[in-house]
Write a structure and sequence with these properties.
This protein is α/β, with parallel strands linked by helices and 217 residues long. Helix content is 35%, strand content 16%. The protein has 10 helices and 8 strands. The structure holds NADP nicotinamide-adenine-dinucleotide phosphate.
């Protein structure tokens, strides 16, 4: 069976961690960053023959799932046209000390993934992997029949796209936890009870339900 292509826009720490697990499951991966495909040659070589690099637009065009793993200040420069109709896995967080204050995000009390969706009109944004430290991704991945798997929250408005990301999360080693639509994804933003903690799916769901105030620290 042909494996779907996983593209990554923002092949830094989190992007490379997800790409590594995707390759391990036999997916072709296409990596991109802001400096150009040639600057990713060493990463491509390390990932092996399933990996390649391209521009962000090229990666977007090739991906069946396109992982967005850029710092939040880069959201407005993503290749919107090439992402139209695509399943976009949004792994980003907004963090003002790093990204600079973005007035639209600070002033408008909607989850950051909704801002990503507004920036990428026509794409199907699904939030996942924003609440795990990059180095835990290879360290904590376990096969689906293993005990003690870690839970990863999944939020999205388009149900087929959410299903696709849910299957990908499971395939690369985590228990997906459906937390609803993008509007609910504040429950897993920076500073929420389930953020950057190693919880099973059941524990994560409990923590997410516990989150009763806005989180975007
Ligand atoms: N680090 C974590 O543990 C972690 C965990 C969960 C979520 N996140 C979130 O994931 C995102 C990335 O974090 P990170 O730690 O992986 O950052 P990082 O290591 O600094 O990587 C960011 C990547 O984004 C690329 N990039 C920046 N602007 C771009 C643009 N306009 N087009 C294409 N690529 C662009 C950078 O490329 P260049 O190097 O060429 O500029 C770099 O490859 C952030 O939103 C972060 O909050 C991080």
């Amino acid at each position: 069976m042909t494996k779907s292509t996983i593209s990554v826009i923002g092949a830094g720490r989190i992007g490379q961690a997800i790409a590594g697990l995707a390759v391990r499951q036999g997916h072709p991966v296409v990596l991109s960053n802001s400096r150009g495909p040639e600057t990713l040659q060493a990463v491509v070589d390390e990932l092996g023959p399933l990996a390649s690099s391209d521009t962000a637009a090229g990666a977007a065009a090739q991906g069946d799932i396109v992982v967005i793993a850029v710092t939040f200040d880069a959201i407005e420069s993503l290749p919107v046209a090439d992402l139209t109709g695509k399943v976009v896995l949004d792994a980003t967080n907004y963090y003002a000390p790093r990204d600079g204050v973005i007035p639209a995000v600070e002033g408008d009390r909607v989850p950051t993934s909704v801002h990503v969706q507004r920036a990428l009109l026509g794409a199907h944004v699904v939030k996942a992997f924003n609440h795990i430290v990059w180095s835990d991704i290879p360290a904590d991945a376990r096969p689906s029949d293993a005990l003690g798997r870690r839970g990863i929250a999944v939020a999205g408005d388009d149900l087929p796209s959410k299903q696709r990301v849910t299957e990908f999360v499971d395939e690369i080693g985590f228990d997906p936890v459906d937390i609803g639509a993008l509007d609910e994804s504040w429950r897993i933003q920076r500073g929420s009870p389930g953020w950057i903690t190693n919880y099973s799916a059941e524990q994560l769901l409990e923590k997410i339900t516990e989150a009763n105030s806005w989180h975007n620290a």
